[in-house]
Amino acid sequence: MKNTARLCLVTGALCSLSLLSTAQGRTWTSVQGKSLEAEFVKLDGQKAVLKRSGGQTVSIPLAQLSQGDRDFIAEQGKGNSSANPADNYHLPWPRTVKCPDNFKVETIKEEKGEYVYETPHFRFICDARLGAGMIKRLGLLFEATHLANKSLPIGNIPPHDDSAKFPAYLYEKFSTYLENGGREGTAGIFLGTTRPGDRGKILVPFDSLGVKTMGSTYIIDRDKDSSTLIHELTHQLMSPQAKQASWFCEGSAEYMGMTPYSGGRFNFGANRSHIVARVTEYGKKNTGGRALGDDFEAPGLEAYMNMPYDQFTGENANLHYGLAALMAYYFYHMDGKGDGQRIKNYMKAIQSGAREKEAQKLLLDGRSYAELAKEIEQKWRKAGIKIRFRTSS
Q1: pTM metric for this prediction
Q2: How many CA atoms lie within 13 A of 74 on its CB side?
Q3: In whole angstroms, what is the distance from residue 210 CA to residue 378 CA?
Q4: Closest CA to 207 of 159, 156, 172, 251
Q5: How far apart are CA 180 and CA 342, in angstroms?
Q6: For 154-184, how does the pLDDT look when each residue is reduced to its tens digit (9 = 90+)?
Q7: Distance CA 259, CA 148 (A)
C-alpha cells in the first residue's frame, strides 16, 4: 500500500538522528517521539520538505510532525504570499466573515443563448441574460462562500489558483437545468469530476438565484433562501481528499448552508440556533430543513462514520444529512476544549493521504466509538437535542 510505504519512509528518516551532525538546522520531532536534525526548505501542500546533512531532502506529512513543528512551519508561512492558504490550522475560528463587494465583474461574452461573466474566482455561463448588476449580486454570494470556506481553519479548500475559475452554469428554465444534469427537487447541484485539476461545475436554475421575472427583465426575489446553493458551492470549493467520508463531506456543506448569510456576510458566531432549527424542524421562517425533531434514533456511530455514499444518500438521507450537520458542529465547536483541535488533526491526516479509518483514530483520540457516541449525545442533550446512537450498525 502506497500510504504504508510513505509512513515507513518517514519513520526511517526520523530514526536516523544518530547519523546526523547536530549542526544541521533544527530538531524535528514526530508524533511518535522520534527526532531528526534538518533544515526547513518549504511547505509542499500538506508536507514539510526538509533538507538533511548530506543534502538529501525528505517530505514528511504535517500530520506526522509534533504540534511545535507545525507551529514553526505556520510561522514561516506568515508574510509569504506563496504559502498554501489551505495551511490555515493555526488561525482562530471566525465569528463572522464579510466579503467586500468592490470586486470587478468582467463581461467575457454576450451573445444570444450564451452570456459569460467572471468574478475573481468564478465564471458564470448563462443561457439568458441576467445583466452585470444581477451577476454582481450573485457573484457576491459565490465570492462570500469562497472566502468563508477559505477562512475556516481546517484546511478544507483545494489548491488556490486565481487563473482557474470555478464554473457555474445558470439556466433560465428549470427544464433546461434538468436536461443538463440537474435533479428534481434541487435548487442547484455540483457535478464533480475525477480528472486531476478539474474543478467540476455548479448547475443552477434562475429560480434558485434569488431573482424572479417582471415582464421581460429579472428582479431580486428577497424571499429566496440560499442555503442549498451555498451547500453545493461548498462541495465545489472542497478539498478532494475531504470528500472520501460521507459524514464529513455532507456535514461540512450542511454546516455552511445552515450558517446565517446576508449581503456577503456569514455569521458563524450565531449559527448554532440556526443549525438546530434546520435539523430539528423546517428552519426559521419555514425555509427548509431536515425535520428530525429534538429526539431521534441514529445509526451506530462507527457504521455511520464509515457509511458508503450510496447508502448515505439513500432512503434515510434526511436523517443522515441532519446528523452530519450536528456532527460537524460538534467537532468544530463542542469536542474537547472546543477549539476544533481533533478535527484539525483529522483533516491534516487525510490531506496527507491517510485513509478514512486511520484518520478517524485522531478524532477518537483514545476513545472507543461507543465512548465518543456518548460524549456527542451528552453535549447535544445540553443543547436541547436528544440523539440516541444505536449500539450496533
Answers
A1: 0.75
A2: 16
A3: 39
A4: 172
A5: 40
A6: 988 766 555 578 999 999 999 999 999 998 8
A7: 10
